[in-house]
Specification:
Number of helices: 5
Oligomer: single chain
Structural class: alpha+beta
Strand content: 25-35%
Radius of gyration: 19 Å
Length: 189
């Protein structure tokens, strides 16, 4: 037997792990969400990096228009069926690993965020972590109203990350909503 013992220790962080230095946003509300997705990191990054794909898995993102120099205009469903316009600029782009952004002048909401893609230590897909920090319109009252109406970004981020996982792993997003193409029959015979 050798003098060197084998170790099963691994440098592993759960998707729920929060690095305090990375989640302190500049704005009044911050949220981090994570999911383990059974797809290669590069494929997930490539799909997310094409910002025009966002409406395919996000219930709240209505449209994304690419502008010049890493900027984009987003139309997002806000509380009370009011659309919110976000003007964002990519501040960091490490292919296959991380995309970070911040709001630009003309945005209805000051915000910043990032998404990271990390290989799972046990070879079981990719950990995707999303961080969002923003100033809610209307301050504390606006944040409470958005939360009650299920339009608060923390709630939306959790849902949309789950939808992204479904789309990337199965090619579709499951829903209990009846499809428009299959209207329900009358219950009266």
């Amino acid at each position: 037997m050798s003098d060197h013992e084998l170790s099963t220790d691994a440098n592993v962080a759960s998707p729920a792990y929060l690095d305090k230095d990375e989640v302190e946003g500049e704005y009044a509300a911050s949220s981090v969400r994570a999911a383990l997705i059974n797809r290669p990191r590069e494929a997930l990054y490539a799909y997310w990096r094409d910002l025009t794909n966002m409406p395919t898995f996000s219930e709240t993102v209505k449209s994304v228009e690419l502008l010049a120099a890493g900027r984009s205009r987003w139309i997002v469903a806000g509380p009370g069926d009011k659309d919110v316009e976000l003007i964002s600029e990519i501040t960091e782009d490490r292919p296959g690993e991380r995309i970070a952004w911040t709001s630009n002048e003309g945005s209805d909401i000051d915000h910043e965020g990032w998404v990271e893609f990390r290989d799972n230590a046990f070879g079981r897909g990719t950990e995707v972590r999303v961080f969002i920090s923003y100033d809610p319109p209307g301050g504390v009252v606006g944040k409470v109203v958005a939360k009650v109406m299920q339009r608060e970004p923390r709630i939306q981020a959790r849902r949309e990350l789950r939808r992204f996982k479904q789309l990337m792993e199965t090619g579709e997003i499951s829903t209990s909503k009846a499809p428009d193409a299959a209207p329900r029959a009358s219950r009266h015979f």
